[in-house]
Amino acid sequence: MAQGDAKYLRDWPFKLNKGDYDDTDTYSIAFLSDNIAAIDVNVTDPTLTTYTETTGGNIVKTALSNFTITRVTTNVKFDADDPATFLKNASNPTDVRVILIINDTVSDDAAQAIDATTDGTTALDLVNNDLSLSFDANGIMTVTLT
Q: Is 45 within the bounds of a domain?
């Protein structure tokens, strides 16, 4: 996969349709050392603890501001403000490969995994480089209803 490519965890929309989530829930991003290839979209009930979280320095689980769910005709859009830049720091982890979007309100349920690498395996250098994360203009994810 390429940097910025995402995997939608299939249990998340299933639970959304069951009513497990609310549009007022709080969402965050967490940082993983797992390779994107190791993220199984079909895993049942994935949470943050399903994966290997990595933290340190300025790289910590971060709440997403202004998370919204909107619908226009058959398109449901999930979006939030872009998080602030994560500044380089000698204490930042050296093994960040995936950014995980989670529902903080419901047991840190995992929703989406984003490949942070350029090749699927090489970790980001956050000791010497800042990290800026910008969500797509069309939202974090869009679901089309049929």
A: yes
Side chain identity, residue 70:
T
pLDDT digits (tens, 9 = 90+) for 57-88: 999 999 999 988 888 898 888 899 999 999 99
How far apart are alpha carbons 123 and 22 in whole angstroms? 34
How many domains does the structure of the chain reveal? 1
Answer yes or no: is 1 within a domain.
no
Cβ-based neighbours of 63, under 8 Å, separated by 6 or more = 26, 27, 28, 104
Phi, psi of 6 (to 5 degrees): -130, 155
Domain that holds residue 45: 6-144
Give the separation between CA 83 and CA 132, rounded to whole angstroms.
8
Vertex 104: Cα angle to 100 and 108 (nearest 5): 60
* pTM for the predicted model, two decimal places: 0.92
* Angstrom distances, CA of residue 50 to CA of 8, 44, 129: 15, 10, 28
Per-residue model confidence as pLDDT tens digits over 82-122:
999 999 999 999 999 999 999 999 899 999 999 999 999 99
- H-only helix segments in the chain: 11-18
